[in-house]
């Protein structure tokens, strides 16, 4: 796997707690995350697969694997970006998510683009 190619894809994640869809009494905490993927390299690449590791505050781990993202396999030329929003549900009011995208260049070289670890956290209410 090429480290140079891996660094050519920049991934940023912004998370949001969805209070209206959550029910803390039922240990249901729903979060949305918006992902921005940008090709900052010199080679076009297509996002083929995703792997997410989601860990709740109790240490319970969920692995999410699949083809593309939100039903698409975005092709990113140098300088192009793609943004999408998805979500997850936890049994605790905080956790983390991280992972990687499997990318393939137009020439057929496969590499992984890291998804940085992000915090999922419901707002704290002080009394």
Topology:
Blueprint: H1 3-6, E1 9-17, E2 29-39, E3 45-56, E4 61-67, E5 75-76, E6 81-90, E7 94-105, E8 110-121
Antiparallel strand pairs: 1-2, 2-6, 3-4, 3-5, 3-7, 7-8
Shape descriptor: elongated
Q: Into which percentage range does the β-strand content fall?
A: over 45%
Within CATH, the superfamily carries the name ApaG domain
Overall radius of gyration: 16 Å
**Major sheet details:** 5 strands, antiparallel
Mean pLDDT rating: 93
Assembly type of the chains comes to: single chain
How many β strands by DSSP?
Answer: 8
Point out poorly predicted stretches.
Answer: none
Helix content: under 10%
CATH class: Mainly Beta
Class per helix and strand makeup: mainly beta
Order of helices and strands: HEEEEEEEE
Q: Helix count, per DSSP?
A: 1
- The N- to C-terminal Cα distance equals 51 Å
CATH topology: Immunoglobulin-like
Q: How many domains in all?
A: 1
Report on the structure:
The chain is mainly beta and 127 residues long. The chain has one domain (3-121): Immunoglobulin-like (Sandwich). It contains 1 helix and 8 strands, in the order H-E-E-E-E-E-E-E-E. It has one helix spanning 3-6; strands at 9-17, 29-39, 45-56, 61-67, 75-76, 81-90, 94-105, 110-121. The strands form 2 sheets. Strands 3, 4, 5, 7 and 8 form a 5-stranded antiparallel beta sheet that branches. A 3-stranded antiparallel beta sheet has the order 1-2-6, with no helix packed on it. The longest helix has 4 residues, at 3-6. The protein starts with a helix and ends in a 6-residue tail after the last strand. The mean pLDDT is 93.
